[in-house]
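Page 42, continued from yesterday. The earlier attempt failed because a stray header line got pasted into the input along with the sequence. Redoing it now with the clean sequence only.
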Amino acid sequence: MRWWKMLGLAGIMGVAATGVVIARAERRRRAYTPEEIRARLRERVEARPGPRPEDPQA
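This time it went through. C-alpha coordinates are written below.
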Protein backbone atom coordinates (compact mmCIF):
# COMPACT_ATOMS: atom_id res chain seq x y z
CA MET A 1 0.00 0.00 0.00
CA ARG A 2 1.32 3.42 -0.86
CA TRP A 3 1.99 5.97 1.88
CA TRP A 4 -0.67 8.42 0.59
CA LYS A 5 -3.35 5.74 0.76
CA MET A 6 -2.40 4.99 4.35
CA LEU A 7 -2.42 8.70 5.13
CA GLY A 8 -5.89 9.04 3.62
CA LEU A 9 -7.16 6.05 5.57
CA ALA A 10 -5.74 7.47 8.79
CA GLY A 11 -7.45 10.80 8.06
CA ILE A 12 -10.81 9.14 7.49
CA MET A 13 -10.45 7.17 10.72
CA GLY A 14 -9.56 10.36 12.60
CA VAL A 15 -12.64 12.16 11.29
CA ALA A 16 -14.86 9.22 12.26
CA ALA A 17 -13.36 9.05 15.76
CA THR A 18 -13.87 12.79 16.23
CA GLY A 19 -17.51 12.44 15.23
CA VAL A 20 -18.02 9.70 17.81
CA VAL A 21 -16.52 11.85 20.57
CA ILE A 22 -18.66 14.85 19.62
CA ALA A 23 -21.84 12.76 19.47
CA ARG A 24 -21.13 11.25 22.88
CA ALA A 25 -20.52 14.66 24.45
CA GLU A 26 -23.71 16.03 22.88
CA ARG A 27 -25.80 13.15 24.28
CA ARG A 28 -24.30 13.72 27.73
CA ARG A 29 -25.00 17.48 27.51
CA ARG A 30 -28.62 16.99 26.46
CA ALA A 31 -29.26 14.57 29.32
CA TYR A 32 -29.46 17.47 31.83
CA THR A 33 -32.80 18.95 32.76
CA PRO A 34 -33.13 22.76 32.78
CA GLU A 35 -33.27 22.70 36.59
CA GLU A 36 -29.98 20.76 36.74
CA ILE A 37 -28.32 23.24 34.39
CA ARG A 38 -29.49 26.20 36.52
CA ALA A 39 -28.26 24.52 39.70
CA ARG A 40 -24.84 23.83 38.16
CA LEU A 41 -24.52 27.43 36.95
CA ARG A 42 -25.45 28.74 40.41
CA GLU A 43 -22.80 26.47 41.97
CA ARG A 44 -20.18 27.86 39.57
CA VAL A 45 -21.12 31.45 40.41
CA GLU A 46 -20.95 30.75 44.14
CA ALA A 47 -17.56 29.03 43.81
CA ARG A 48 -15.83 31.81 41.90
CA PRO A 49 -13.96 34.59 43.73
CA GLY A 50 -14.98 38.21 43.43
CA PRO A 51 -18.22 40.15 43.75
CA ARG A 52 -21.48 38.30 43.31
CA PRO A 53 -24.01 39.50 40.70
CA GLU A 54 -26.59 40.17 43.41
CA ASP A 55 -24.16 42.38 45.41
CA PRO A 56 -25.24 46.07 45.23
CA GLN A 57 -21.54 47.18 45.26
CA ALA A 58 -20.72 45.25 42.09
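Notes: The two ends are 65 Å apart (CA to CA).
Reminder to self: strip header lines before submitting.
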